[in-house]
Amino acid sequence: MDFVYSRFDTDLFRRINLEQLTKLFLQVLNRRGGDTRAALDALQRTWMYSNIERRAGISFEEFRDYLEEQGLLDFDRATGTFQSTLRTELTLQKQAFEEIFGNLKGGEIGNHPTARAGGPGERLSETRPYEFGDAVQDIDFTGSIGNALRRTGFDDFAMAEEDLETCETEFLTSSATVILIDISHSMVLYGEDRITPAKTVALALVEYIRQRYPKDTIDVALFGDEATPVPLHEIASIQAGPYHTNTKAGLELGEKLLLRRKAANRQIFMITDGKPSAITEQGQIYKNPFGLDPKIVARTLDQARHLRRKGIDLTTFMITTDPYLQAFVDDLTRANKGRAYYAALDQLGSFIFADYGRNKKKRV
User: Fold this and answer.
1) Contact 209, 220 (CB under 8 A)
2) Tens digits of per-residue pLDDT, 303-315?
3) 255 with 190, same domain?
4) pTM attached to this predicted model
5) How far apart are CA 64 and CA 60, in angstroms?
6) Is residue 4 part of a domain?
């Protein structure tokens, strides 16, 4: 929770309620890599230095008890420490979802359309004449009644099969998704925290997919010098390290995870700051952190094209506005004919959606 003051507002903390304080706890927990003890220590210091107890009317201990009552903390008697819970993980996902996708229109991300129309799916505005076997719930009764009225008039109103119209539907299929998260050193370079926004986007994507497509599968993998899968519940605990950026290895692992899944559609969501600086060749890691190495770039773009041939869509979340780094993501997205979202660290909810498959850009 960030505030910018022109002068100090002495009544500020009186207006902070338990919901806002809970959001603050979750944000600190995410920033601290899921370390509950470190998050509570940081929050306690905030209580002391900001005098929240007097301003908000609740002590730190009382707030900690409140979190325990809400199922967000669990006291481990064996270690004498508080631990986060499964409910904490789910609440983190929901909060991230609201932060990232709260201003996006439904249907922009994660749809699974196919070339065919009809069948179970989302209703479209287009209609066609009713055919035997069409689902009753897809009948457009307003249009059908209008057809009958035009044919018979009000006085002799009667509806026949020829009057019926049915709404077209977009046939939706199951999809397998892999979320790739860049954990290279550049994600925390020069004191700029990019890993926390990356985790926030990942948490939001998991919640989005679970809400809208509960039958879809989700895998998460990290890539630095190498790539490795991680369980969903460990997303909040992810930390960047002293690694280079082996984007190619991440895409290769994403492909392997997807090919294990039985799904009509397969897609990769990659969260990165955009600069590949390593590849693996014959079991050895070739690294070059200076600029965009032509060899590394060429191998990475080849992998993106390979994914396209395999029918795997690539969507990249670019969490920096550096034009130099965006240029590579543009090339990567064109190579896969995928999509890219660009966002500054403090404006994650305002992406530029670039759909190179349809060759257009729009703000969502």
Assistant:
1) no
2) 999 999 999 999 8
3) yes
4) 0.66
5) 6
6) no
